[in-house]
Amino acid sequence: MSIFNKIIEIETEPGINIYNITNYLKDFLATTAIQNGQILVFSQHTTTALAINEDEVRLLEDIKVFLRKIAPESERYLHNDLHLRVVPEDEPMNAHSHLMAMMLTTSEVVPVIEGKLALGTWQSVLFFDLDGPRKRNVLLQISGE
Fold this sequence. Notes:
The protein is of the alpha+beta class. The chain is built from three helices and eight strands; from the N terminus they run ββαββααββββ.
């Protein structure tokens, strides 16, 4: 079995944003000879997340509204008491982003069959930045034969 690793860097916009990263996976897979295996997609941040879902603009807006309802930025959160923690000078008040991320997941696994991603017709791999703008890293790991 072979294993290949790659970090993709995504520069994000302010606020909650959702990025379709499926093509990054396809492009990375194309650089390998893997025909059967899997791609692990792992977000390396605590205020980001991943999901496999439909990349449809109105649905993506619905998701943002849903996440804001779960963890409104305007609520009072202990994590936002920055004066009580050791933090960098530019540390944002982002407890709501951490809570949103916990409702999603930090990783997804996509099967590879006959050299292609085994995603369904409407499925895409979506990366969520819940606390932008920032530079974000996503680890891709392909394993198989």
